User: What shape does this take?
Amino acid sequence: MPLCSPSLSLCGIIISIWGIIQLVLMGFFYKIHSLALSEDLPGLDEGFTNVNEFYAKANSGYSQNAFNCWIAACLYVITLFFSAHQFYLNSRNSISM
Amino acid sequence: MGSLFRSEEMTLCQLFLQTEAAYACVSELGELGLVQFRDLNPDVNAFQRKFVNEVRRCDEMERKLRYLEKEIKKDGIPMLNTGENPEAPQPREMIDLEATFEKLENELREVNHNAEALKRNFLELTELKHILRKTQVFFDEVDQREMYQSAQMTDPSREEEHVTLLGEEGLRAGGQQSLKLGRKMETFCKHPLGTLQLPLHQEGGFHPTESMTRALITDDAIARQPGAGPVQLGFVAGVILRERIPSFERMLWRACRGNVFLRQTEIESALEDPSTGDKVLKSVFIIFFQGDQLKTRVKKICEGFRATLYPCPETPTDRREMAMGVMTRIEDLNTVLGQTQDHRHRVLVAAAKNVKNWFIKVRKIKAIYHTLNLFNLDVTQKCLIAECWVPLPEIESIQLALRRGTERSGSSVPPILNRMETFEAPPTYNRTNKFTVAFQALVDAYGVSSYREVNPTPYTIITFPFLFAVMFGDLGHGFLMFIFAAWMVWKEKPLAAKKTDNEIWNIFFGGRYIVLLMGCFSMYTGLIYNDAFSKSLNIFSSHWRVNYNVTTIQEVADLQLNPSTSDYIGSPYPFGIDPVWQLASNKIVYLNAFKMKISIIFGVLHMLFGVALSYSNHTYFKKPINIYCEFIPQIVFLTFLFFYMVLLMFLKWMIYGPTNPLPTSPACAPSILITFINMVLFKYNVLPLDGCETVFMFGGQAFLQKFLLLVAVICIPWMLLAKPIQIMKKQKKRHELLSNNHVIGENGGAEGVGHMVNANNISHSPPAKPEEEEEELGEMFIHQAIHTIEYVLGSVSHTASYLRLWALSLAHAQLSEVLWTMVLQTGLKSESSVGGVILWAVFAFWAVLTIGILVFMEGLSAFLHTLRLHWVEFQSKFYSGIGYSFTPFSFEIILATASGTGED
Assistant: This one.
């Protein structure tokens, strides 16, 4: 039984595809320590007394964020399957009707 | 062939058509769709025209077809749409068509009528069936109860006594019956509806009769009134709409003072209303009463509530018999109904195959007769005369079409197509294809270009998306736009076939190629600005280096990278803006300077291009006077002031560098804006900055600027006065000529002078009267003054207006940055893996906002600003836009609009 309306499932498909592409790319950029994304790293707001401490924190932030991005991308793969399944059910319903 | 640069050359033609051949010829021209007919009898009203009868017949046929179509749609039969385009049938075929439609319509109406009658019959029988079934239950209940009670009741002797106790009113109404009634009522009180009703009336105890009836039904009374003799109770049974039940019940209670009993049950299955075809829910009811007065009253109430009453036999055996009879009749009716439906279906399926085709045929015939109504009848009644606008290059194909039409009609006399001379401005016909049509629509929305004027569309195709992209520069947003438009272009045919009424969608789909180009250009400018969802891409690796050591970084809060040192490797980033700027705190200051300058540069070039296009107009319309008196001063004014400012910008970029020695070091770079303002204000005693020798960029700048300003100022009276004075002089000369050559005669003289003034247009017009000339001259001065003021003030304000390119670009970049930091960043700031789930949710939110605000709303805003830049800043330099568009007589257009409105 379809849970979403046809347009909602289509919206889910589009956002999932976009999310998978962008989050995989962002994860990759975090992995290679992209400087442009450094503003978004967690835990860099407090004052640091030592540069090495800062670097250590930044490095762990980079790998954590890369990991999180890929987790989110995986979740979007699931969302994509779900939405696609809903879309399939909806389209089958509309044909049979 | 025609080009997009100018509208097609048009000519007015007179067309003589033989009466017999006219129909076929017009039909051919309609297929061709290149001729615009003029109404030759505008004073004649629509009902007095020659072919009004035929048009009416077509209308009638169309009505029948619409009826047919409605019936087909009602049955959900697919209509065959082969997409073929049948030719307009011969006039004599019209009778066949009419007969066919007539027959079909009558048949259908008859079938519908019969079906309705049958359905009504069927409904009645079904209702009766339900009544018999339901009432059976009521009677059964009562009988059971009666038997049960009579078994218990033993003492009939006391009956009379108690009747008197009930009071005189009870007696008069027939105490026995009332009591029996009371017992029955008690039976019904077990029914939920009955119990519901009673307290309702107890509340309103002010009614005297109500209190009496209450007394009648107390348990006490019943207990003491056993075994009342058999009473003649009347009843009626019927069916009523379910929603009317409550009011019906109350009405009965009030009107009959509670002396009737209503019992009802719902019919579970919905019944079909034969007249509307809707499914309605109904209930069966049965009303018990006593006496004829009550009977009439009850019947009237039933009538008032549109309840249908059915005869219901009293004895169970009769009822059973009747039920049997009803069942057999229903069976029979079902068969007949099925056959009727089959017949109707067959008729409609047969019609569905042709209905689209017929629609096209009838609409074509109607269009042809409508056009024939525009024609003039010749004195001899032998031929029809038409006037039409025709694109000059297409005259051959039109003649060919006319010849085909003549052959088809079997007429021997060929139609005559004469070119006519006229002073009327011809319509503007721009040939477009599916790519250019949207751009042409943008231009036409401002004003249809005058006949043969320079058409801004071909330039708009490039400048429009480009200026849009300058404001919308973001790789990510541009890509989203591009993907959407590319999908529309890719799925063009299926999407176009799917006609919808959704206006917003139609606008987007109509402008799909514009959106596509806007997306492409936005990706390009996004790369230049190095912005993708407000993040920079480090493709070629930054050309800046951080050379600070660890201790400096630890101790100093704000650090600078100096381009004059080894922080900058000396060569610029190969493409666009260096990605290092994304992390700089002075990013906005840097980008503002850059974007403001390029806005002004694009603006001045765009306006200069517009003025240059006006040259092409002046030469084409052979108005050399406009070149000397308008075009040259205009371009000089714009170049000497504003283009000079653009040049200064480039000079500033070239001369000053971080590593240069003092006179050309960045510290001495003058502000372009201040320089320009000083130039216009003639202010040259400005002190140079500390350590700099001068405020000027190059030697002789002060002299050059004075010269440029002087020439520009001279241009203003030049634009203002030169043209009117020239014309005044010419007119004076003509006066002298006229008075000298008076002997030649007015006509010859006039023609000669006309040729001198203007070879093109005025040569045939009679010589103007001197008073009119005076007036014209005054008007001309005013017109020229307005024109000049508009241009001079316009060039200042329009140049400033192009700064919107910078402003919107800044706004867009900032908004996308804010969206990233306020929304998406919240999903990235987590230090544990839960962040992945948060990111998943936040990303969807961010994506929706990106589409809604940044791509859709910002895109719309940038689109409108681009439109303004084209309509006001660009087109005001050369475009008058006072023409009217060519609307050819074409079946294609007529059918498209007809089906468009028909689908609504």
